[in-house]
Specification:
Chain B: InterPro entries: Bact_solute-bd_prot1, SBP. The complex is a heterodimer of chains A (278) and B (447). In chain A, 75% of the residues lie in helices and 4% in strands. Chain A has a single domain, classed as Orthogonal Bundle (MetI-like fold), CATH 1.10.3720. In chain B, the strands form 4 sheets. In chain B, strands 2-1-3-12-4 form a 5-stranded mixed sheet, sandwiched between helices. A 3-stranded antiparallel sheet of chain B has the order 10-5-11. Classes of the chains: A mainly alpha (278), B alpha/beta (447).
Chain lengths: 278, 447
């Protein structure tokens, strides 16, 4: 309880306190003065902040389904495989990207997507095409980030889903076999329904994770221009570290937390309703 | 001892004496060592500063220097800003460009160097640099390190191959761009637009007399990012970009150095520290048959001559430093001593802010970088001319980091063709104004 207070409640309370102040020039010097809800009013009118939410929203509805679909397919294949070296190898290989810090993976992928160094562009140029500038526009940059995030997290989600499949009692398969169910039917009527709780869990984590994307766009800065409003957290960082406006950054952080909370509970509600229908 | 030998020795002594007399209009202040063993942490992105720092420790063995290179510009500033506000984690000494100094003055992060005897050093520096480190004309917040007057780095081999004269005016520059594009079938661009570095663009506007900010007597500000000169410069480059004559590779990335080495960019408008970074970054791969040279910045008309300043830095001491005396000794030595200035030039290509440094013969040695990389050209003299043509009365605002970020954003949109370059400048003004106000400044727009 003490740790909960110190590490969770206290920072949030401090952020709320901070967000009620605004900097102001008094006699030529910048001073923090009480501003009430001024920061929140600005936040809701801040085009860059709103844009960062739009970016992350479209990012999420495209990237999360692709990632979870891939993770599910891989988990099912892995579950089907006979125990042995190959199974262990693939399990580790797919999980490996998750163990690489996202800043490093951002740099690695950054070079693969660099205008002049990318092997992709090399192949295109060899065939007489014009090289692609992968960071030319925000949608393109989001695509690059989506690629990195998917690569990193597919393995992680696969392991969660795979563990849940391993937890299925083997008798269930035997019973299904006796009833004549094979291949696709086993997957469709036994495995997928049993995967539901694990899928919802990974979905929830993915929504929360998506709302917090920061390291990947940050690392991509070393190869080209990535706008501050690419994700909410990147924008928060700019407001805090670049402009030094911590009270406004605190207000933005609280708005971000609120939006993430609302979104996740919305999904939890849908999930709960669906489970009851079953 | 025979006579012949005596004569020879005497002759030798006279020669040495006269040689040293000739050079010794170089003036160094008295450096006073501090007591005890000290280690200073220094944040700087000057190439090879560790080598210069080693020279310092050779002279003052009780002071060790730990140089930390976090990367240029924003990468260092964001961390420094955070450390300043947090009240811990800041280094003893940091490198800050003149334009970004007001940001740190506002946050009360820097030591007033008058308390450490800086007032006596004023006469050692190029006069306008002192104004930059002492913007209120009272407190002194930094020791000038280098300046960045603009000139044009160009590939002499490319101009020779296509038989095009090196441009002296912006009109000639535009015409050379069209001709180069035609002859090379669009492969070779006349120049590159650094769309992610507003101080580069500001320097070009500065060279033509545009002003971006001024502060009123009551402390409030006026911002004029969209002044007519600013719009004209943006339109000029925008037209060349749209025509395909100018590229937009981001500065200081492999994506810029590669086409430079490959001969796909003919010129680059570079500050006085530019030749140093060319010599350093292109050392491994300068490009086949490449001849890098420096010429004056193109002018509005033949006969006129002006330049702007891009970057150039000062060394500051943070209030968190536990050894301000030792830190002062280091930044003083670094920027006024002959050893410091020569080492910074050879290792980092720093164009000294110290008045006497500019006429040092060591900086004209054609066999040492950066001059060596430029075919032995006397690079310093070109930039010295530019330095004298810089309008010295230029004011920076403390929200330059915000202006810088907005600039990169609106320029990206202009390059994608979603808005015109003139609209981009108007948005730059409006959005920066909104951010400055949100960050607490009393500021109005103006012309």
């Amino acid at each position: 309880m003490v740790t909960f207070t110190v590490f969770f409640v206290a920072p949030v309370l401090y952020a709320i306190y901070l967000s009620l102040f605004i900097p102001q020039q008094v006699n030529g010097n910048l001073t923090q003065v009480f501003g009430g809800l001024q920061n929140y009013e600005w936040a809701l009118q801040d085009n860059q902040f709103l844009k960062s939410f739009i970016h992350i929203f479209f990012f999420g509805i495209i990237q999360i389904p692709i990632m979870l679909l891939l993770a599910t397919i891989l988990a099912l294949i892995l579950d089907q495989m006979v125990d042995g070296f190959l199974k262990r190898f693939f399990r580790t290989a797919f999980y490996l990207p998750y163990t690489i810090p996202s800043v490093i993976s951002g740099l690695l992928w950054g070079y693969l997507y660099s205008l002049n160094l990318s092997p992709l562009n090399y192949i295109i140029q060899q065939n007489g095409g014009q090289p692609i500038n992968f960071l030319a526009s925000t949608p393109m940059t989001l695509f690059v980030i989506g690629n990195i995030v998917t690569w990193t997290w597919v393995g992680y989600n696969m392991v969660v889903l795979f563990a849940s499949l391993q937890g299925v009692p083997r008798e269930l398969y035997d019973a299904a076999k006796v009833d004549g169910a094979t291949g696709w039917n086993v997957i469709r009527y036994i495995k997928l329904p049993l995967l539901r709780p694990a899928l919802f869990l990974t979905l929830l984590f993915s929504i929360i994770g998506t709302s917090q994307i920061f390291a990947e766009p940050f690392a991509l800065r070393s190869i080209g221009f990535v706008p501050n409003d690419i994700t909410p957290n990147a924008y928060l960082y700019a407001v805090g570290a670049q402009n030094g406006n911590y009270s406004y950054a605190a207000a933005l952080a609280l708005v971000l937390a609120a939006v993430t909370f609302i979104f996740s509970s919305f999904f939890l509600r849908i999930i709960a309703r669906n489970s009851n229908d079953q | 001892m025979n006579r012949k030998f005596l004569k020879a020795t005497m002759l030798g002594t006279t020669a040495i004496l006269s040689a040293s007399l000739a050079q010794d209009n170089f003036r160094e202040p008295q450096y006073r060592d501090v007591q005890g063993n000290v280690t200073l942490e220094v944040w700087s992105w000057v190439p090879g500063l560790d080598k210069t720092a080693a020279e310092f420790t050779k002279q003052f063995p009780n002071i060790k220097i730990n140089v930390v290179n976090l990367g240029g510009g924003a990468q260092t500033y964001n961390r420094l800003q955070t450390a300043c506000r947090a009240g811990s984690g800041a280094p003893d000494v940091a490198q800050i460009e003149y334009g970004f100094l007001p940001t740190y003055i506002e946050t009360n992060c820097l030591v007033d160097l008058r308390t450490l005897g800086a007032s006596n050093l004023r006469s050692y520096f190029v006069p306008w640099t002192w104004r930059q480190v002492s913007p209120r004309n009272q407190e002194v917040y930094g020791i000038p390190q280098d300046t960045g007057p603009l000139a044009m780095i160009y590939r002499a081999d490319i101009f020779k191959r296509y038989n095009i004269p090196v441009p002296r005016t912006w009109d000639e520059f535009a015409r050379a761009g069209a001709r180069l594009s035609e002859l090379s079938k669009g492969q070779v661009k006349i120049g590159n637009f650094f769309s992610t570095y507003s101080p580069w663009f500001i320097a070009l506007v500065w060279a033509q007399g545009g002003q971006m900010w001024r502060q009123n007597a009551d402390g409030s500000w006026v911002q004029t990012l969209n002044n007519p000169t600013s719009k004209a410069v943006a339109k000029f480059w925008g037209d060349l970009i749209k025509a395909g004559y100018v590229s937009t590779f981001p500065a200081f990335t492999p994506d810029f150095w590669n086409p430079m080495a490959a001969g796909r960019i003919a010129t680059s408008m570079e500050a006085a520290w530019g030749p140093g970074s060319f010599a350093g970054s292109l050392a491994q791969n300068p490009g086949q048959g490449a001849q890098y040279r420096v010429a004056n910045l193109p002018q509005r008309t033949l006969g006129s001559f002006a330049s702007g300043n891009w970057g150039g830095s000062s060394n500051v001491i943070t209030r968190q430093s536990k050894n301000p005396q030792a830190a002062m000794l280091f930044i003083n030595w670094l920027n006024t001593s002959r050893t410091g200035i020569v080492s910074d030039w050879n290792n980092g290509g720093l164009f000294p802010a110290a008045q006497a440094g500019l006429s040092l013969p060591e900086l004209r040695n054609p066999d040492v970088n950066p001059s060596k990389f430029f075919g032995g050209q006397d690079v310093i003299t070109v930039y010295q001319r530019a330095s004298q043509a810089v309008n010295v009365d230029f004011t920076w605002a403390p929200w330059l980091p915000a202006a810088d970020a907005v600039f990169a954003d609106v320029m990206a949109q202009a390059i994608q063709g979603r808005i015109t370059f003139e609209q981009a400048i108007d948005q730059w003004q409006e959005r920066t104004l909104a951010e400055a106000r949100r960050n607490g400044y009393k500021v109005t727009g103006g012309q």
